[in-house]
């Protein structure tokens, strides 16, 4: 029986902390390829067995009570009662102080998705077996997932004791900590861990990476300089330095990459990053000059990653509007056995659309198999049908998708609402999203779309309450803070709160050009023209978007810098001659 869109499904909530703990335990303690399934119908004891199974009753003198409980646990496991089995093993581990039983209980708790068992069991396991790297890693993961960074420090330090694994340990620690929301605390923790190893390149790189994430660029650059002293021309140091410099200015990043490539011309990752920045800055000729070098380096490389390089260069060519080159490179990626062919089919479909080869685009989208890319292909197909036929036919296509889970249903509804909004059918889009938020599990992203639909109908009270709800449900939802702040600024109300909201968004998504544009616009509304220009110019340097150009030009005009404003508009119109906001703004002031 197939399942179509259903707006009357029951709500379901999960604990984010429980999910985080169990994901980390699944990946680290169990080493399983997938932890997505729930408790199996029939528990197999050998699935959770370890190389150090507790000695059986026949192998040592044990009390009758221990033997009885042990056998009960085994039988419970065989019957699929894994919670009972794990609880008994945990109780036995505490009584006997046996790390093997604690490990067994921890792994059962993780596999069966029982945080109330997994957390204390892994803690006991780590305490009873301090020499076990696996136990210490599992304990560390659990502490990080629950936000207890200070308690995690001694466990992390233990991972760095052995000299032969210390360098890799620092890189591993960074990957462990990147999910923690308190970036300043992560930086302090890594600085403390690195203090005994001031000349280790990996230790300094770990500090730099944490500092970059915490927006402490001077700390990052200082640590990178130290890493460079210990390990000259290390590629990942150069890559990170370029990212840090890019935040200061794209010109600084490109200048650094060009200098680095004079010394290390075969550093393809650096050259690819350089090309990306050049494309981002619309320096298309300079970017294209790098493409053949990137492809030639890939051919000479022993890494056998030619397919991936062709895909990357194809994407860069696509962004420079060189669609013939992009199509050629994407086809070469397939010819070189690119693993994710469905992704390339999507790229080829988008490339064909840009060339107005609509029939070819449909053919590429229809090649995408029923897997993880299928829904995206259907969305692209729907957009193409809406453009070439009608919005109603596009919505019908999405309505007929079957076997969708709840998350996919929500994505489909969001896509349908976007199609309606693009067709200026704002009331229909609002009605569809309103029905969804009333009848489907509410994700912050769904609530966000509903709020924006309300704003398009000037239902500002609904928009504000829904965006505040999205923020409450997802406190790190940068786009929601920005949307609410920008709405206030655009309507010239609550300007102090608008600035606070957008500044909060920027702490969550540093140097996002749209958010910098919002902050500049809010300062403009407040009359802070110099600050407005500062943020708008920063946003425009990162991405010369036409709407940012419209805002920047307007503020410059109001400041009396008429010629500079005209040039900003003129250059932007050359690149994007049909942008409505840019045209309206430029014409309003030029007249």
TrEMBL record:
Keywords (A to Z) from UniProt: Signal, TPR repeat
Cross-referenced Pfam families: TPR_16 (PF13432)
PROSITE patterns xref list: PROKAR_LIPOPROTEIN (PS51257), TPR (PS50005)
Annotated InterPro entries: TPR-like_helical_dom_sf, TPR_rpt
Residues in the signal sequence: 1-36
TPR repeats: 307-340, 513-546
Database matches in SUPFAM superfamilies: TPR-like (SSF48452)
Protein name, as recorded: Tetratricopeptide TPR_2 repeat protein
Organism name: Methylotenera mobilis (strain JLW8 / ATCC BAA-1282 / DSM 17540)
Taxonomic path: Bacteria, Pseudomonadati, Pseudomonadota, Betaproteobacteria, Nitrosomonadales
